[in-house]
Amino acid sequence: MSSTPFDPIDPLGLDDLLEPEDLAVRDAVRAWARDRVLPHVAEWYERGELPVIRELAKELGALGALGMPLEGYGCAGASAVQYGLACLELEAADSGIRSLVSVQGSLAMYAIHRFGTEEQKQRWLPSMAAGELIGCFGLTEPDVGSDPAAMRTHARRDGDDWVLSGRKMWITNGSVAGVAVVWARTEDGVAGFVVPTDSPGFSAPEIRHKWSLRASVTSELVMDDVRLPADALLPGARGLRAPLSCLNHARYGIVWGAMGAARASFEAALEYARTREQFGRPIGGFQLTQAKLADMALELHKGLLLAHHLGRRMDAGRLRPEQVSFGKLNNVREAIEICRTARTVLGANGISLEYPVMRHATNLESVLTYEGTVEMHQLVLGKALTGLDAFR
Hints:
51% of the residues lie in helices and 15% in strands.
């Protein structure tokens, strides 16, 4: 048996799984989030806004966090594990910050990088990687969430141009984006378009009155006969497989990110249990509190192990979409339970923004349903396990 001291924050010694380069990425993102987000995020959350989003985007670009796993065009070319560690640290600060990075890199930039022409990549990606240009991703519609095949947004040919009309809903970064990747029906099926947001007929009103992801910009996209040149079309994107592959890339980041929110809540509960006294001693000395802490630690570190495993598979080119569903379903669900349990350890203080727990819990209610609801991921796994399609 090892004589290495037991670390309550890393009880399984998971840092042993990481290379020095991985640790450097993690520590750099953690330090940035500690200095630039944590001192202000409770205020942003309470106000329901992210007033410095443009400044943060540029700082994240300088950090190499935007489009991290992509190669070239100013992107870092990081490993999947390194990208996952960045998502972990960003969401440990707030889900809204991780969503900013995820939508920018894993959705908008990824779509252009994978499906765009060389001219489109050269035009858009370097400024997006630097955080000078913010992007968004328009797939979900007001009446269409889990069934994107039923989208109503459409694009029709008019000479050499395209004319785009429709609405998208719950779009992160929408009202601050300079470019939107929008998915629409055409006579040849679903296609993707790169849309400058200053195009006539395009607007992005911000969605207010949210009780989750409050430190995040969420918008509607409205396209009223937006005229686009022929080269706005993403030529490599044909059919629903294209946007769904983008979502799969973003879901991978959520597998890690959810554990960041869970870790922050667990650490807050652990520190509170050590210092809060009732009946003459710290509440961490009572059996029921220790049982809660033990159960939280178990689920947190099982989720981290799962994230590491999926990251290694992605780096090896062996990660399947069903495995991402496995990770998203498990880790978000368990993260919410960890937050709820942590809230009970903190008692009434658990609902205060002086502590991160309730903020993480409410944020995760959005993470639970976006980019695939619980039911959708259950059905993905059910089909993989049985070979039978229960979607329709």
